[in-house]
């Protein structure tokens, strides 16, 4: 079993910053991609940022230049630094990881979600 535990959400004014963290633990052999998704009320979950094991990263257009995804492979942790936050960034943010477990199976795991609220 693998668990993803997120932290760092909260309430911030527009223009402010937050840093989300997501730590993976359990029967991990290796982790391929780690990503952040978000889901706003009444909207579908969308991919915000993703980082592959080699360090490449990609972002949804709406956050490019404001958000940065990074990863500490030694700690199996992924971060999302969010700057210049806007009210439209308000959502529940979910961590996702593509994990090869100790039995060498690949599976997709989700965190429990953390609320980010940006006030205008």
Explain this structure.
There is one protein chain. With 120 residues, the protein is mostly beta strands. The protein is 0% helix and 62% strand. The protein is built from no helices and eleven strands. Strands 2, 4, 5, 6, 9, 10 and 11 form a seven-stranded mixed beta sheet that branches. Strands 1-3-8-7 form a four-stranded antiparallel beta sheet, with no helix packed on it.
List keywords for this structure.
120 residues; mainly beta; seven-stranded mixed sheet; four-stranded antiparallel sheet; 0% helix; 62% strand
Gist?
With 120 residues, the protein is an all-beta fold. The chain has strands spanning 2-7, 10-13, 18-26, 28-39, 46-51, 57-59, 67-72, 77-82, 91-101, 106-110, 114-119.
Number of helices: 0
H/E element order: EEEEEEEEEEE
- Fraction in helix: under 10%
Strand content: over 45%
* Main sheet attributes: strand count, strand direction, barrel closure: 7 strands, mixed
The unreliable regions are none
Class by helix and strand content?
mainly beta
Number of beta strands: 11
Computed Rg: 14 Å
What does the average pLDDT come to? 95
In angstroms, what separates the terminal alpha carbons?
A: 40 Å
Based on Cα principal axes, name the global outline: elongated
Write the layout of secondary structure elements.
Elements: E1 2-7, E2 10-13, E3 18-26, E4 28-39, E5 46-51, E6 57-59, E7 67-72, E8 77-82, E9 91-101, E10 106-110, E11 114-119
Parallel strand pairs: 2-11
Antiparallel strand pairs: 1-3, 3-8, 4-5, 4-9, 5-6, 7-8, 9-10, 9-11
């Amino acid at each position: 079993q693998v668990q993803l535990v997120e932290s760092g959400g909260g309430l911030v004014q527009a223009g402010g910053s937050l840093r989300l963290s997501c730590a993976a633990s359990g029967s991990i052999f290796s982790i391929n991609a780690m990503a952040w998704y978000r889901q706003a009320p009444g909207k579908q979950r969308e991919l915000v940022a993703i980082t592959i094991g080699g360090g490449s990263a990609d972002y949804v257009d709406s956050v490019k230049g404001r958000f940065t995804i990074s990863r500490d492979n030694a700690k199996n942790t992924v971060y999302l630094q969010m700057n210049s936050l806007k009210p439209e960034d308000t959502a529940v943010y979910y961590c996702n990881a593509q994990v090869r477990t100790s039995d060498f199976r690949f599976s997709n795991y989700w965190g429990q979600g953390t609320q980010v609220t940006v006030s205008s």
